[in-house]
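Format notes (please read before filing issues)

Several people have asked whether sequences and structure tokens are stored in separate files. They are not. Every record keeps both together, in the order shown below: the sequence lines, then the token lines. Line labels are part of the format and must not be stripped during preprocessing.
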Amino acid sequence: MAEAQQRLDSLTKPPGSLGRLEVVARQVAGMTGGFEAAEGENGILGNKAVVVMAGDHGVCEEGISAFPQEVTPQMVLNFLNGGAAVNVLARHAGAEVVCVDMGVCADMDHPDLVHRKIRKGTSNMVNGPAMSLEEAEQAVQTGFELVSGLADQGYRIFATGEMGIGNTTASSALLAVLAGIGLEQAAGRGTGINDATWRHKQEVIRRAIETNQPDANQPLEVLAKLGGFEIAGLVGVILGAAARKCPIVIDGFISSAAALVASRLAPLATGYMLASHLSQEQGHGQLLEAIGLTPMIHMDMRLGEGTGAVLSFHLVEAAMKIINEMATFESAGVSKA
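Then the structure lines:
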């Protein structure tokens, strides 16, 4: 990172004048152990992948979402057929979409689907733990191993994506417990619920926390009691990317809940995370603050899927092109102040 900063300060511009682009370039240099790269067909960062993990949530029994649970497998097929927003943005960024079934409440058959189902949906966290500690560990390990395998195939930068009706409720519960945030601030409107459902959602989370009594000092326990299979899988994706010294671009609210858990399990993993955007979902800013991340863009997005993270691939790539391709004061014959 020090070498990257020295290089940035030698470029034909006032020091720090490219703002966050310089910060990102310095961070990526630290993550990967260097900043010089030969530009290939997949761009200066090499092969890029967004890992979209899908799972269903038992808490949907409580009527906390504007959409029925059947939407989860329907959207998974949309991802696999290339028709979702994340597919469009991934194609634009030259990134691969890797879709993983972590716990969808349906039997799915598609040649491009990565089958890693723990079971068909979590349990209703209002009545007890969403998953067992062993299931949570299995889901985290699954995400870790998946990214390790992709790194072996030559992927060098990753983005987090997800799909799961009800997962903003689980993520809000994780935020409330791990960051000590009040439910009115932690729980947002997800896919667009009305005032009455929003208040009901807060009450459902309150009951789940009272039932499970999670210990904020035991992040894996909190994840098991209040999380989801796709969220736990993303925790493993983040830890796996960090272990392989690969940048991991964090998407919105749900992905950031996974990132918060990952940061509590392995604080050093935070150094490999890049926050893509500030979601319109209430509580996302506090989630990022709890992790210690600053978003690159503010686009009022709240779709999830990995859309904001994939969109931010362009900025990460731009940052690395700046540090590689800009002339220095010396090479350009420009006088330095």
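For reference, the curators noted about this record: The chain has one domain: 40-315. Residues 133-152 form the longest helix (20 residues).
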